[in-house]
Amino acid sequence: MNALPAGNGADAARWRSGVVLTLLGVIAFSSKGVFAKLAYPHGVEPAAFMLMRMSLAIPLFWLLLLWRGEPVTEDWRPRVDGWRLLWAGLVGYYVAQLLDLIALQTVSATLGRLIVFTYPCFIVILLALLGRRWLEGRVVVLLAFSYGGLALALVGGGMEELRATWSGVLMMLASAALFATYYVIAGDLGRKLGTRRFSARVMTIATIGIAAHYVLLHPLDALWGQPWIVYGLALAMAVVATVLPLILIVEGMRRVGTETSAVLNLAGPGFTFILAWVLLGEQLRPLQWLGFAIVLLGAWQLSGRRVARQDN
């Protein structure tokens, strides 16, 4: 894991500011599930709510880029990196976020964040596959430890609850796996393109994807007949849980590195639980708390392993 730089005061200050930016982004991103849970009782469908959120967020990303542009580095490769950018927007963000929002119809906000935040496990597996190397024995044990904790958290809610939410759980796991691909790509392309340019481009691609999805499968008039509170929640989610976290986390990642950023992101489920407890009245049972702790401990250990370094 990237440690605090020694000897150079400027580097140390940059690292500390990266930690602060990442944590602020994690806190903002943790509110996403709560906004969705507050909107669903008003009858809005997940794809419609996501389209509202993204449509409201896109102008903000481009305004930020126009206000303060960033240079593109010389190692930007349009052909190769262009395809990676397309994947990050359509699959790593749009499909992952859509699966997440659909799953939140049946899975609690707290449990949903816990499942999604197993993505460091998927990052370890992904980087091993990209590097064409076997996982170390200790890493395999940590993966089993993390997913054992997840199983405990799921079973701890009772078998009836698990049977009612199993499809949502699978969607959340798929969302975590796809988000891992986004995270790996963002660490590299955010450095090459600059934080604001990368964010604006990837969000535009994701918005085109969700718009095409919605137009093909849903009537457009369903977007206009929603209660005003749904539009207000979509706007709040666009600003607080989309624009702010993406800018803050990618910028923080540039300063502290992908590994340290992944570790700091593990604070997310804790912040989500606090918000869900205060605003939604959600609570965890004792076995779920134990599973919660095991998952975060395992993911933290995995994020700090040198095997997860992108530059290996």
Could you characterize the architecture of this molecule?
This protein is an all-alpha fold. The protein has one domain (9-308). The chain has 13 helices and no strands. The protein has helices at residues 9-29, 32-39, 46-67, 78-103, 109-116, 119-130, 137-155, 159-193, 195-217, 228-256, 258-265, 268-280, 286-303. Helix 3 (46-67) crosses helix 10 and helix 4 runs antiparallel to helix 8 (159-193). The chain is globular, with a radius of gyration of 19 Å. The model is unreliable at 306-312 (pLDDT under 50).
Topology:
Elements: H1 9-29, H2 32-39, H3 46-67, H4 78-103, H5 109-116, H6 119-130, H7 137-155, H8 159-193, H9 195-217, H10 228-256, H11 258-265, H12 268-280, H13 286-303
Helix pairs in contact: 1-10, 1-11, 2-10, 2-12, 3-9, 3-10, 4-8, 4-9, 5-12, 6-8, 6-13, 7-13, 8-9, 8-10, 10-11
Oligomerization status of the protein chains: single chain
Note the main sheet: none
Strand share of the residues? under 5%
Radius of gyration: 19 Å
The count of domains is 1
Label the overall shape. globular
Low-confidence stretches: 306-312
Quick check: average pLDDT? 81
How do the helices and strands follow one another from N- to C-terminus? HHHHHHHHHHHHH
Give the structural class: mainly alpha
Report how far the terminal alpha carbons are from each other: 12 Å
How helix-rich are the residues, as a percent range?
over 70%
Number of helices: 13
User: How many β-strand stretches?
Assistant: 0
